[in-house]
Amino acid sequence: MSSQVHVDPAAVRRALRESGTHARRSLSQNFLVDVDALEAIVREAAPAPGRRVLEVGPGLGVLTGALVDAGAAVVAVELDPALARRLRGALAGAIARGEQDPAAPRTLRLVEGNVLDVDVAGLVSPPYDVVANLPYHITSPVLHLLLGGSPRPERCVLMVQREVAERVAAPPGRMSYLSVFVQYHAGARVALIVPPASFEPAPSVDSAVLVLDVRPADDPRRLDAAAEDDLWRLVQAAFRERRKMIHNVLARQLPLPADRVAAALAQAGIAADRRPQTLSVDEWLALRAALGPLAQDRRGRRAGDPPAEPEPDERGGPDPAGDAGEWSAR
Description:
Blueprint (H helix, E strand, L loop, with lengths): L8 H10 L10 E4 L2 H11 L6 E5 L5 H8 L3 E6 L2 H10 L1 H9 L6 E6 L7 H4 L4 E6 L5 H10 L6 E7 H7 L8 H9 E9 L4 E2 L6 E8 L10 H14 L7 H8 L4 H11 L12 H11 L36 E2 L1
Parallel strand pairs: 1-10, 2-3, 2-5, 3-4, 5-6
Antiparallel strand pairs: 1-8, 6-9, 7-9
Helix pairs in contact: 2-3, 7-9, 10-13, 11-12, 12-13
């Protein structure tokens, strides 16, 4: 493998020692040591020779090397300076080839920094895919960055916390703001459950490989910018009181009279006593169309805002700090 790291716990610990670093608790670093999981990720990504792939958090380069070996033209964004230094040595050949022709097969461009602070559009041009073992606590912001901006990737194959993966791919009845946001932009499925023993050091919760097939820009379900902004204001307002009846929630959370809300729900074929988590993406779209343009006020939140619900932390409970830390399964 190009990364020169064998996929087992002892080899990961040795590679870290040789690099003069260690798994940093402050960054919640956990490294993938499961060959089956690694092969499953690459199989789901299916990179063709020269296919552009954005990788977030390459870490020791185990997945990076596998993608390069498969023929991908990889752009990898690494936050940790010590790991970035190691990657420059371990994958020097791929980096050198990338300096000559970044779009050629089996190449690598390494970018040191936080993916949330870089210009993704300036790093990789479409068509491209995203393949990454995401830090747990930035999963939601990264999904907003990739799906809410432009150009969007065509496919995302992501290792994330199992609870978040299942929330993203949830059916109506267990939907959340994040479910609606992602499923508006992409088809979502959980491809594989990955146990804690697949990482070194082992986290305290299961992980999962989440596959997103992103809808193209000309998909008939996509809205224009103003209508999409209204959609997210509507959805985010509703999920502030997800366990309450949708008629009551929207009448309180949006600058709309109760009779207009009732009429729109009836027009969309949605019973007024349903809860927000029971609505499908198509029902949210129908409700937005029935309501028409929303007046601006401080209660409706815009598409670029963070979700209206806390994400779970590494222990599976609510994370009141939101994007306070990073869990990296790399």
